[in-house]
Amino acid sequence: MHIDLLRSGSKSLPQQISETMAQRITSGLLQPGARLPSVRNLASSLKVSQVTVSKAYAELESHGHISCSQGKGCFVAERARMSLDAGTGWQDGYDDFLPRAQLWRNFDYSKVEYPFHMAAIHGDLLPLDSIGATMSTLVTEQPELMASYGNFQGDLELREVMCRHLQGHGIHLRSSDLMITSGTQQGIDLVARTFVGPGDTVYLEAPSYTGAIDVFAGRGAEMIFVPMDNEGMKVDVLTKLCDRRPPKLIYTNPTFQNPSGVTMSISRRQRLLELARSYRCLIVEDDPFSDLYFRKPPPPSIKSMDAEGHVVYMKSFSKVIAPGCRIACVAAGGNILSRLIAAKSASDLGSPLLNQKAVLPFIARKYEAYAEQLRTALRGRMEKAAKLLKQHAPQGVSWNLPEGGLNLWLQLPTASGISRLHELAEQEGISFLPGDVCYSGEVPSRHIRLCYSQMKEADMERGLRLFLRLLDKHLSSVR
Amino acid sequence: MHIDLLRSGSKSLPQQISETMAQRITSGLLQPGARLPSVRNLASSLKVSQVTVSKAYAELESHGHISCSQGKGCFVAERARMSLDAGTGWQDGYDDFLPRAQLWRNFDYSKVEYPFHMAAIHGDLLPLDSIGATMSTLVTEQPELMASYGNFQGDLELREVMCRHLQGHGIHLRSSDLMITSGTQQGIDLVARTFVGPGDTVYLEAPSYTGAIDVFAGRGAEMIFVPMDNEGMKVDVLTKLCDRRPPKLIYTNPTFQNPSGVTMSISRRQRLLELARSYRCLIVEDDPFSDLYFRKPPPPSIKSMDAEGHVVYMKSFSKVIAPGCRIACVAAGGNILSRLIAAKSASDLGSPLLNQKAVLPFIARKYEAYAEQLRTALRGRMEKAAKLLKQHAPQGVSWNLPEGGLNLWLQLPTASGISRLHELAEQEGISFLPGDVCYSGEVPSRHIRLCYSQMKEADMERGLRLFLRLLDKHLSSVR
C-alpha cells in the first residue's frame, strides 16, 4: 500500500504509518483478516527502516487494530482470515492511493429503517412534483438534451439563473465565474485534485465534513484541524498555526457547520479572508445550509467579501430541492476556475445536461418561496427532535440547539464503546454518524451526529425514541 | 506550477520540464501572454539547478512556445500579455497538479456547425423517445428517485441488467462485480486516482484516447506509448519494454480503437492478459464500440478470458443510447472493485439514480435489436464518408476503412501546419481532432480524426466536402 510520508511533518514516521493504516482499517479498505505486508517489504517500499515499520505495527497491535504472530505475520484483527476468491489473492498486494474512505464506509445504508446518518431532506418535503413535471416536458419537447454532452463548465442558462440567485444573496459574479458540478462533493474533489498535492497544508475545522477529509487525505495533504468555539473556527489559533506551516488551502463550512451546527461570526469571516490574502491561498467555502436558517439569516458569505478571487464558493442546489439530481454550483474567479473546468472535463466530461435543465425553472422562479416553507418545516422537525432529546436523553448527554441546517451534534459523556453502540443501533435498523469520522482520527471522539430531516416526521420521532433508549442502555453498560 | 520529475526516468530533466510546460501551453492551461516563473524560482521549487530550467526555457523558446527577453522574463508566446482582473494576479503563481488538459481544450465546440471532433452519435439515431418515455413515467410514479442519493456502487437492478447483458457477450460476472459510473471517462479517472501515482508506469497504445492520457498525466504517471500494427498494440514490443519498466497498469481500447479504428487480434489479447498476470498488474479494457461492428462481431473481450481479476472492463451504455444520461459500467473483481467504489463515493457520492433507472428497461429489453439497426445506420454513414474521401481527398492523404466504431483516422502527407488548418477549419464552422493530442506530444503527428456519426447525414456530407476542399488548399500551401 502507498503511504505519503511527510519527512518534515510534525508526526514521527511510525506514527504516520500507524495512523494511515488505522484509517484504512476503520474505513474498511483493509478488511478483517487481510494480511499486512511483511515488515521487510513495507520498509523497503516506503524507504524507511524496519524498526520504523515494527514500531508502527506494535502501535496498531496495542490499539487492537491488528494481531501479529511469530512466523505467520500480521493480520487485520477481529475475524478469521476470509477466504479469497481463487486467484485474486495478488490484488491484496496491488498498491493504491486511498488512505481513507469514511464516506464510503458510513453513508451507504440502503436497508436501514431509521437513517439518521446522512444529512439529507426527506422526499415529502422536496418539490419533486414540480421538478418531475419539468423533466417530463423536457424529455418530450427537447429529447436532444439526452443526446448531448453539453458544456464542460455547465449549461450557460443554468449558470445565469444561479448567478441571479447568488446576487440576491450578496454574491456578485458573472455566469462565466460559475461551474456546475455533480453535487458539492465533486466540487471539493475537483479543488483538491487540482490544487492540493502531497505534503500541502490544508486547514479544516475540528470537527469537519468527513467527505472533505477523505478527499484531502487522498491527495496526501497534511491536514491540520483548527478548534472551534461558538463563533466558529478559531482564527487566532489558525493564524499562529499558519506561521509555522503556511496554508495551501483552508476548507470551511461557516454556516450551520456540518457536523457541529456552529456559525462563524462576521468578524471571523473577515479575518479568515485577510489571512488567505496575506498567504495568497484559497479558501473553500462550502455552503450547503445558509438558506436553511430557523430564526434570522446568517451573516454574509465569505465569498461576498472577496474581491481578489481567494474564495471558491460551493452551493448545492440539488441538496435542498432534489438531491438525486446532483447539481451544485462552484463559484471561483480567474484562472482558478478555468483550471477547475479542465479538471472537471477529465473527471467526467461534464454533468448530465437534462438534470441541469430540470432544476433550472424551479431555481429561477420558485426557490425563494419554497425555501421559506422548508425553513418552517425543518424548524418544526428540529424542535420535535429537541423535545424528545430533552425528555429522554440519558444523563450526561449534551447538545446545542442548531440555528439552521439538518443536524444535531450530540456529546456523550464518554467516547468508550461508540463503535459497539453503532453496531447495536444498526441491528435495530438505526444509523447515526460517529463523530470520529469528522476528525483526523487520532483521538476518539465522544460525539455523534443525528440528522432530523431524512425521514417522515413520525418515523423520525419513533426512531429517535428507540435510539435514545438504546443509548441509555449503552451508557449504563459502559459507565 | 507543479511538475512531477522522474529522476530515474529515460528523459533528461530539462526535457521533462519543457515537455510538461509545452503540454500546459498547448492545452491552454497556460494562456498566451502568461508570465512564466523566473528561472531562479522554478529551479528552487522543483529542486533542480538553474541551468536545468534555463535549458528547458531555451528549448521552449526554440519551438516558439514562449518568448523571453532580458530583464523582463519569459512569457507564453503569440499574443501580448492579457490584462488580468484587478487583484487576481496572485492566482498565476498558485500551484496546481494539472499537467495536461487536451480534453478540455479539444472537445467543447458548442458553436461549431460541423462537429467532426467528438466521437458521438447524432440524436436522430438514438432511442431518445423510448428513454424519455421511461423518464416521464418514473418522475410521475416514483418521484422519490429524485430525492435519493442511491447506492454508491450504482443501482442494484441496473447492475443485474448489465450483468445479463455482459453474459450475452461472454463476460460472466455477478452484479456485485459491477459499478455504475458517470460515463467511461469517470471510470478511467477512478482507476487512475486509486491505483496510479507519481512515477508509476502506464502503458498505452500509440495513438490512444486523449481523455485517458490527460487522466494518467494528472496522476504523474510515466506513460509509455506502445506502437500498433493492424493487429493492435504490439505485445512483443510491450513485453520488452516491461522488462525494463514493469507496468503498474496497461490501458487498452482493443476493439475499433479510438482513434485508429484498429482491432486487437485474439492471440494478442491472450498474450496481453498473460503479461498482466506475470506482472500482477491491471489492464483497463475500455470498450465503447464492440457493439458497433459493420461486418462481423469482434473477438471476445479480454475480460471474458480473465479468471483472476486482472482486467477492469469498461463499457459505456449511454454513449450508444443516450450520451447525455452519462451511464457506464465498470466491471472488476475482488478488492479492486471495492477500492474503486470507495473512490467513487469520494468523487461524487454516486451517479444520479433517476438517470440509471431511465436507461434500465431499454438495456434490458430493446438494446440488442436497436444495436442491430444502429450498426446498419453507422455503416451507411461510414460508407458515405469513405466515398466522399475517395472522390475528394487530396493526394497523399490516406486512411483505412474502419470495421466498426465512429471514427476515420486520416494520415496527411505532412504534420506541418495542422494547427493552422485547425484554426482555419474552425473559422468555417468545422472541427476535427488533431492527432497530436492522442500521443504524448513529443513528436508532431500527421494524423487527424474525423467522426462521421455526430451530425445528420446531409450535414456530415456537406461538412466533409467543405473540409476536404479546405484540406486541399491547406496542403497545397504547405507543400
TrEMBL record, chains A, B:
Name of the protein described by the UniProt record: GntR family transcriptional regulator
Source organism (scientific name): Paenibacillus borealis
Domain HTH gntR-type: 11-79
Gene3D superfamilies reported in the protein's UniProt record: Aspartate Aminotransferase, domain 1, Type I PLP-dependent aspartate aminotransferase-like (Major domain), Winged helix-like DNA-binding domain superfamily/Winged helix DNA-binding domain
Cofactor(s) of this protein: pyridoxal 5'-phosphate
Keywords: Aminotransferase, DNA-binding, Pyridoxal phosphate, Transcription, Transcription regulation, Transferase
Coiled-coil spans in chain: none
InterPro entries: Aminotransferase_I/II_large, HTH_trans_reg/aminotransferase, PyrdxlP-dep_Trfase, PyrdxlP-dep_Trfase_major, PyrdxlP-dep_Trfase_small, Tscrpt_reg_HTH_GntR, WH-like_DNA-bd_sf, WH_DNA-bd_sf
Family named by the database record: In the C-terminal section; belongs to the class-I pyridoxal-phosphate-dependent aminotransferase family.
Superkingdom per UniProt: Bacteria
